Amino acid sequence: MIVVTGAAGFIASALVSKLNSEGFNNIVLVDDFSFEEKNMNLEGKNYVDRVERESFFDWLDSNGNRVEFIFHLGARTNTAEFDHSLLTKLNIDYSKMVWKYCIKYQIPLVYASSAATYGDGNNGYKDDINALGNLEPLNPYGWSKNEFDKWVIDQKEQPFFWAGLKFFNVYGPNEYHKGRMASVVYHTFNQVKHTGEMKLFKSHNSSYQHGEQLRDFVYVKDVVEVCFFLMNHRKNSSIYNLGSGEARTFLDLAKATFNGMGVDENISFIDIPEDIRDKYQYYTQADMSKLKSIGYSKEFTSLEDGVSDYVKNYLVQNKYY
Fold first, then answer.
1. pTM of the model
2. Cα(182)–Cα(175) distance, rounded to whole angstroms?
3. How far apart are CA 12 and CA 42, in angstroms?
4. DSSP annotation string for 224-244
5. Closest CA to 14 of 228, 184, 308
6. Parallel/antiparallel/unpaired status of strands 214-219 and 247-249
7. Which tens digit of pLDDT belongs to each residue from 132-178?
């Protein structure tokens, strides 16, 4: 039995699809299932039960001995969320409970961290567990993820295997419900579809031209491949970066989307909203050497190939993965 929290969300629902494709159907989904738009991500998936987020620990008390693995991907993921109490409840305290139950029932664990923990990147993007205290996240979401990472490293009691994954800029199918937090590919597709053009953020940093801000974009199908690898690997417990390892510009991303749609490029620029302007990352690039050092050898999908697959096989057809 495999448990996936945040199961109706973007990455977790894609993981369920990956698990199904590998023959794993004895899956228990945990989430707040009150959002019908998110629940569309679960249509056609194979699983044995749904458990409401608030009931999960009671459920574990009755079923913990049957669980063979937990993917804890559920979180408050809005990077513009400024309610510290909510982030503490959902991203820190809830995750601590998951950790403690994994110890209690000897369940291996993979949990979601975030590249938002790295802040402006002045301290680099190396997944060194000894440097977590030096990181300065730019928003409360990144702070909450880093606080849990730091807590994990300080724990003397641990599940027999665990891994935290610092997701970089993930894009791909099943993010339809994310609104403002969806990827730039998704926003480009919809803007071009409705207006014929894409408006990217201007640069408010003299070191970068408009649209030349750099991100490590990673395709969701690659993300779930790494999750599946770790489920089978079950050693070398640590925190790992999960990006493509290659920074690309937002212009590259937008151009790839236009190309996937078969539409002529039409790109203009607008100011970054003031509420996120001073929290904006201009460069991210995952150092992927640590994950590769433990035996992960699959190539990551190129930006052009990932965007093409996403646009042609999912967005155009309004399909889920």
1. 0.94
2. 6
3. 10
4. HHHHHHHHHH--S-EEEEES-
5. 228
6. antiparallel
7. 999 999 888 899 999 999 999 999 999 999 999 999 999 999 999 98
Q: Which of 94, 101, 111, 141 is catalytic?
A: 141
In the residue annotation, 314 being an active-site residue is answered as no
Q: Of 100, 150, 178, 202, which residue is the catalytic one?
A: 178
Tokens of 180: 């403002």
Beta strands in the chain (DSSP E): 2-5, 27-31, 49-52, 69-72, 109-114, 162-167, 169-171, 198-201, 214-219, 238-242, 247-249, 267-270
Sorted by sequence, the CB contacts under 8 Å of residue 264 that are 6+ apart come out as 258
Query: What does the pLDDT average to over 182-196?
Result: 94
Q: Is 178 a catalytic residue?
A: yes
**Alpha-carbon span 118 to 152, nearest angstrom:** 17
Question: Which token pair is 213?
Answer: 């801000």
**Distance, first Cα to last Cα, the chain:** 22
Distance CA 125, CA 135 (A): 10
Alpha-carbon distance of 272 to 258, in angstroms, equals 22
Dihedral angle over CA of 162, 133, 296, 16, nearest 10: 50
CB atoms inside a 10 Å sphere around CB 91: 25
Integer CA distances (angstroms), 37 to 43, 73, 75, 77, in order: 11, 18, 17, 16
Structure tokens at 156: 């003397």
